[in-house]
Amino acid sequence: xxxxxxxxxxxxxxxxxxxxxxxxxxxxxxxxxxxxxxxxxxxxxxxxxxxxxxxxxxxxxxxxxxxxxxxxxxxxxxxxxxxxxxxxxxxxxxxxxxxxxxxxxxxxxxxxxxxxxxxxxxxxxxxxxxxxxxxxxxxxxxxxxxxxxxxxxxxxxxxxxxxxxxxxxxxxxxxxxxxxxxxxxxxxxxxxxxxxxxxxxxxxxxxxxxxxxxxxxxxxxxxxxxxxxxxxxxxxxxxxxxxxxxxxxxxxxxxxxxxxxxxxxxxxxxxxxxxxx
Length: 277
Fold this sequence. Notes:
Layout: H1 2-20, H2 22-28, E1 30-31, H3 32-36, H4 43-46, H5 54-75, H6 77-98, E2 106-107, H7 111-124, E3 129-131, E4 138-140, H8 141-157, H9 165-182, H10 185-210, H11 231-256, H12 263-276
Antiparallel strand pairs: 1-2, 3-4
Helix pairs in contact: 1-2, 1-5, 5-6, 5-7, 6-7, 6-9, 7-9, 8-9, 8-10, 9-10
């Protein structure tokens, strides 16, 4: 559990920094255009250590704490770390693929990595009991996993919210597959439960990637995304907007002096100067 505790501490520290500093949060969150257009690939990892609020952070960290012991104890620290980070990055890549035409789509959270750890434990011990607080009963982990998959499928189809459930599902499947690859005997003994989880998930992912319109995957972004624009067109549009803002700031300095700039304008000018150096 040592590695899990270190990950929890890092998540708490980075998320707290993001709570207090909007510029820090914006610099490291998952954002489609920042990754595809500006090649800022570190966001695939850094976004996994940021959270929206304390509730989001605490829920993910408790889930990581409860499921990490089984995986770390069974497969070892290195394998546990591999599952955590591959699930995190893999879930982000899936989200990037699905939302590749939604330049302003953004998300944060360790949920993809946590789901990878959670489903890895399910692959190893599908009969492990899980208590659904506050109910005084427990259910097999494989049944919980099926319910979780069905909920994520429903959530992605919903038009009400834009939570990154696609990344959660991608991370979950990657964690499960990695656990089976690292411990092949689990497939021999637990294949009925594993197949029941994997088959609907794979079918859903195939549909969401190839026929997203059937699932209303655009959610609330449906009417305001400009899918007709290519990445290059979006890049040129954003560059033009940035240059217009810089010109406005420079004009303000010329008229009123440097002290007239507010905090946001100073940060904008500082970021621009870094890019042109």
